[in-house]
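Milestone M4 deliverable, item 7.
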Amino acid sequence: MSIHFAHTIEVPQAPGQVFGVLDDFAQTPRWLSRCTRIEQLSPGEKAAGTKLRYSYREAGRSGTMEGEIVARAPGERITMHYGDKMMEVSVDFQMAPNGGGTKLTHTIDITPKSFFTKLFAPMIRKQVPKQTVTAMEALRGLLAQKS
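Output delivered:
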């Protein structure tokens, strides 16, 4: 009953620049409207296994999800996994050189856990593509500002 969606855009910035924005969690609320903050809970440099806390506000409700970086290869990929009592969420960003720019693919997988989120899975499944495309276009705009 997992919800899966992937979206690819092309941007003129190099993969390293794209990764730099994605890896700077302070920037995330600027392109992902529901995100209010991502905190790095583990000390030191970011790497696979680094613990995170994702704070969000959606539909008048705020909350947090505990998570971690699952994969991190500068200029190539960053993957995070978050979970709470309602759902498990994996977000993945893959960057590939594309001429002088980058082909950026964002994949999201959501697994409802609670009765409530399972009940609303069809609505979530319908909303995820629009929300993902909107976030990617906001990210494109942020990258253009930083160029």
